[in-house]
Amino acid sequence: MSKKKIFFYDAKPYDKDFFNKANEKFGYDIQYFAGHLNPDTARLAKGSDVVCAFVNDAVNADVISVFKENNIGMIALRSAGYNNVDLRAAYGNIHVARVPAYSPYAVAEHAAALMLTLNRKTHRAYYRTRDGNFSINGFLGFDMYKKTIGVVGIGKIGKCFIDIALGFGMKVIAYDKLRDESYADKKGFKYVELNELYACADIISLHCPLSPETHHLINEESIKRMKEGVMIINTGRGKLIKTEALIAGLKSGVIGSAGLDVYEEESEYFFEDFSNAVIGDDVLARLLTFPNVLVTSHQGFFTKEALANIADTTLDNIKEYFDGGFLKNEICYKCEKECLKVKDKRCF
């Protein structure tokens, strides 16, 4: 019996290491491709049973049409987010599954790293001392203790981040469309409306998914409501922030600093090496000029534990598809998120 074939897009060396290790118990034939998924590269997956895609792969209607023509039955996302997938086009044509949780600690800890680095300017101090300059002028920070931090999105990552903030002795206020009041009482924080969070928070950290309601959550109007000098941290999705508004807020001083692990138009640049090229995105290039802005390349998930969990869950999702049963991590247009079909029945 021939091996089941998986075509793997946007493959990096670390992907190969962790997926090859996880695949030892499955024995799939995985073909790795370094390029992104788009309507042109979609044809390269011909002859495969499943494709594996990442956050910056464009899984649009044209791509899905190519997959259907080539009898590919499943898209296995090795990510939690799926805003890059046209679920309407996928419905009835191809199954889509994701990795809903790999390591909330990884992302929450990276958000805390951005916060601490911006506050104490350790990224700038590193380069200064390597040049033999031991002056600390310009590196003045503030105590995190008793500062108010506003956390937007209280899912698994948001909860981990709240634990970290409480460990610093910070006052936590939170916003989420779905409020877990018992959890808030247990941990000692309170839910507020967004306008109150904007007005009161010294630091705002975004941990919510991207949706029509959260698209450009940080914009000109919301920035006007914020405390002067507020720090903004985003390890969620780039389009939660309207970047032009963020830049204007930085220039005016309303925003004191920003730590960004994601960016609106990151798909062309993040995860790639442009050190010998000119960055053609003027907005991204402008962001990188601010001394009070720290940009990392969507690396919040990038820990050994998270990568191992991503590989294991992705291949488990694929096995469920091949077995023909219930795909517990399937997402579809009809159900909007995790598929709500009953066990042993397809949603379509």
Question: Which features characterize this protein?
Answer:
Rossmann fold; alpha/beta; six-stranded mixed beta sheet; single chain; 12 helices; 348 residues; 13 strands; seven-stranded parallel beta sheet
Account of the protein in words:
The protein is of the alpha/beta class and 348 residues long. The protein folds into two domains: 127 residues, NAD(P)-binding Rossmann-like Domain (Rossmann fold, 3-Layer(aba) Sandwich); 192 residues, NAD(P)-binding Rossmann-like Domain (Rossmann fold, 3-Layer(aba) Sandwich). The chain contains twelve helices and 13 strands. It has a seven-stranded parallel β-sheet with strand order 8-7-6-9-10-11-12, sandwiched between helices. A six-stranded mixed β-sheet has the order 2-1-3-4-5-13, with helices on one face. Strand 9, helix 9 and strand 10 form a beta-alpha-beta unit. Helix 1 crosses helix 12. The longest helix has 20 residues. The two termini are 28 Å apart. The mean pLDDT is 94.
Strand residue content: 5-15%
Annotated CATH architecture of the largest domain: 3-Layer(aba) Sandwich
By DSSP (H or I, 4+ residues per run), the number of helices equals 12
Count of individual beta strands: 13
Strand order of the largest sheet: 8-7-6-9-10-11-12
